[in-house]
Amino acid sequence: MIREIKETEVKECVEVIRKSFQTVADEFGITKENAPRFTAFATDEERLSEQLNGEHRPMYGYFLEDKLVGYYSLAIMGGKTCELNNLSVLPEFRHKGIGGELLKHAFEKGKELGCNLMRIGIVDENKVLRKWYEGYGVEHTGSMKFDFFPFTAGFMMKRLVEPKPWDEKEAGLYRYETHLHTVEGSACGVTPGREYPAIFKERGYDGIFITDHFFHGNTRPSRELPWPEYVDAYMKGYEEAKKAGDEIGFKVFFGIEENFEGDEFMIYGVDKDFLLAHPEIPHWTREDMIKAVHEAGGAVMQAHPFRDRDYIKKIHLYPENVEGIEGINTANTANDNLAALCYALHFGLMIQAGSDTHFKWAIGDGNGGILYEKPITSELDYADRLRRRERPKIFYPEELFEGLGGLKVKLPVEIHRNGAWEDMDLEEIKQWFLEAGATVEDAPAQPEGIVHEIVKKLKGREGLE
């Protein structure tokens, strides 16, 4: 029997997860010393209790009579996507169909929760497990090496629901994706640039911006290359996408995502010649970057400013001298997105939306982006609109924010004000949230329609009526 996990059963869940993943560790030489973050070693009662009570993750167990022998949980991501976590079956109860029943239950539960896609992570060297997932229609989408794991992380994806057609109320507007990664330019990218244009055109888009991670971020080309060679390699994903787009009459624009200390910036309106003319970019500060981009006629938007990830130690907010922020990034959590909108409202920043797409399977009705009444003609055209504060309308899945409780900021925050960095008191940030009409901390829910109301307040022209 499969049923929801109770708070009193968290300790049993930890035992099932650790024992299950220990067999994987033993098979592939994974130890507490070489991979302390691996599930077999990192899972404890505190962590699971936080996921159950703090993050409100759906958790389910497989019970034989009163004994827990299998487990899984779902992490609800942005963009109508969920992630299957810790699918486990005790070793002595394997090969009895329990894992398959749990997996099929997870697929159905994901659909009930409004998810169109399910992400699954595996040890990529585990070919038996990969084949098992593929037997249930799960596709392998890519792999990546991390410094903190001795194995290769494998990424798999299951489409739970086919995309729906666009809402008729958006007819007549030009639709664009502003945040997109390719396998050629971004180390975390999975899909080749040439494959994107046809997919987005079929989905009714009028153009896309290829925004691969640049030099200080999760870039694909080696930083050891001579500068012209690095730039050539970095541009490949965009150039392949542009070529494919030209062949079918679809607009592909160039953009950049650059990183500093976990804070990232979207750059629009510059080109390959700009990059080649600035071999000093590896030594740039944020201020250097913004100044040079503006001098070239470009625009800068801070990406997902409240992103919370385990590799980010501090949130850096930069409201000065940028055109605005990415107010909604559908690959991020509802909490992080609503926090960003409140931040934009407090400082009067312009917003855009994007999907932060890394693989073609994620393209669907869970994406976000921008809309204009007149088509974007070039990178400089979009940059000029941002600099003139010709605000785009935005689109995003409203379901992204369903069930969101009080806003929380778990990381320390630093802000650049009056030309200098200063640490922020989290109480001040809470006031931004409250002023915007949002709830904080342990509040059970957000006010109905809060996102729409904030977007309307931000207005100009963004926000669909």
Give your account of this protein's structure.
- The protein is of the alpha/beta class.
- It folds into two domains: 2-159, Aminopeptidase, CATH 3.40.630; 168-458, Metal-dependent hydrolases (TIM Barrel), CATH 3.20.20.
- Helix content is 30%, strand content 23%.
- It contains 13 helices and 19 strands.
- The protein has helices spanning 10-27, 39-42, 45-54, 98-112, 127-134, 196-202, 227-248, 272-276, 286-295, 334-347, 379-387, 426-435, 450-458, and strands at 2-4, 59-64, 67-76, 81-89, 117-123, 139-145, 152-159, 174-177, 207-210, 251-259, 264-268, 299-303, 315-317, 324-329, 350-354, 369-372, 393-395, 413-417, 420-423.
- The strands form three sheets. It has a nine-stranded mixed beta sheet with strand order 15-14-12-11-10-9-8-16-17.
- The radius of gyration is 22 Å and the shape is globular.
- The termini are far apart.
